[in-house]
Recover the amino acids of this structure.
């Protein structure tokens, strides 16, 4: 399963706010879409763009963003879903970016792709790319973060893309309540003793008067939390 | 970056990492807009990850805070909206950054807060009995790599 399992067909700018050299550019790639499913892929990519357009803070920043849809066909439809993983169906799919559920052999919804290949394709097709997102053609819920964000077509999975864009586009820190999941029983997740975080949305300073976003209107743009 | 200077070109710099070791593997000149610099002073002992461009006198002329690209864990999302982290046994991979092409600022310096040792989350009872250790880095960021962007260019 590799780049032999499909081909790059081209790129379409689906949100065009001006020259790429002057905009923040998002490249959307698809994996596990056979050639005959690329119309469906185009709809999925447009749906993501529409979602971003109405989601703070992307809504107010929308004129600064271009979105590019890179069309890539795969030999097979879907993604690998190893049977060795709890819940795994055992399905295998030969796809261009090698999308795989259960990448850590333990959690099915951990869906990853070959990030190096994805980034290389994005850079070749959209030289000014700032962020790469891969939509995987599967109804099973899954996704993953990192410099290349991945999510499936399951309802709600596009939240993963939005979450990752918060990191990549704005350098925002996570605002998790827990680290390993709130049902894990973990301890120490509700205290912080380190120095001031560099990210703009978290702080070790509990004084509202001197907090780094004091006076800023964050009402529309996100929650205000300290660690 | 001085407010009046908006370079026409940027460098897309790609790195490879294994554990804490970072190696630059490519530089690509691209006509594109770079994101503006973050604060170039007042961040002593801050925690996180950022990169800086330095001039010949070692003065920081551009600085950008980013989410730590050296992945020590996977973010695993649930359909209910919660997020958990799964440690990566042997962190290795690649990442890239975009820096403005600034005349006279050839030095690229990466700063990062070290990841704490991986501690797998056990059962609730095991967790309750476990001594507290932070799961995210809390130490001030330190220089983890420095590169001369002009080195090796024709």
């Amino acid at each position: 399963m590799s780049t032999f399992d499909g081909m790059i067909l081209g790129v379409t700018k689906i949100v065009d706010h001006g020259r790429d050299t002057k905009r923040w550019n998002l490249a959307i790639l698809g994996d596990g879409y056979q050639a005959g499913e690329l119309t469906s892929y185009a709809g999925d990519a447009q749906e993501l763009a529409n979602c971003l357009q109405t989601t703070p803070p992307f809504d107010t920043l929308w004129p600064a963003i271009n979105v590019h849809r890179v069309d890539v066909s795969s030999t097979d439809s879907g993604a690998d879903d190893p049977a060795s993983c709890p819940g795994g169906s055992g399905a295998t799919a030969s796809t261009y970016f090698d999308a795989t559920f259960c990448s850590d052999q333990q959690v099915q919804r951990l869906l990853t792709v070959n990030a190096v290949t994805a980034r290389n394709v994005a850079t070749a097709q959209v030289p000014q790319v700032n962020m790469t997102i891969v939509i995987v053609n599967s109804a099973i819920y899954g996704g993953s973060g990192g410099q290349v964000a991945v999510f499936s077509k399951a309802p709600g999975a596009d939240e993963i893309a939005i979450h990752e864009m918060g990191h990549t586009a704005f350098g925002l820190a996570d605002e998790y309540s827990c680290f390993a999941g709130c049902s894990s029983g973990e301890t120490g997740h509700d205290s912080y003793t380190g120095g001031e975080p560099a990210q703009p949305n978290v702080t070790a300073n509990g004084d509202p008067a001197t907090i780094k976003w004091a006076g800023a209107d964050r009402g529309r743009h996100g929650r205000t939390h300290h660690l | 970056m001085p407010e009046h200077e908006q370079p026409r070109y940027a460098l897309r710099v790609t790195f490879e990492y294994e554990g804490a070791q970072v190696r630059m593997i490519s530089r690509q000149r691209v006509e594109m807009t770079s994101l503006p610099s973050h604060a170039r002073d007042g961040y002593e002992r801050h925690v996180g990850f950022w990169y800086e461009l330095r001039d010949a006198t070692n003065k920081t002329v551009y600085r950008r805070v980013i989410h730590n690209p050296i992945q020590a864990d996977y973010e695993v999302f649930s359909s209910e909206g919660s997020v958990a982290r799964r440690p990566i046994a042997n962190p290795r991979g690649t990442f890239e950054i975009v820096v403005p092409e600034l005349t006279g600022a050839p030095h690229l310096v990466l700063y990062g807060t070290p990841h704490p040792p991986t501690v797998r989350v056990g059962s609730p009872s095991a967790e309750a009995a476990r001594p507290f250790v932070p799961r995210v880095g809390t130490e001030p960021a330190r220089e983890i790599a420095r590169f001369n962007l002009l080195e090796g260019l024709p």
About this structure: The helical segments of chain A are 38-53, 58-61, 115-125, 158-170.
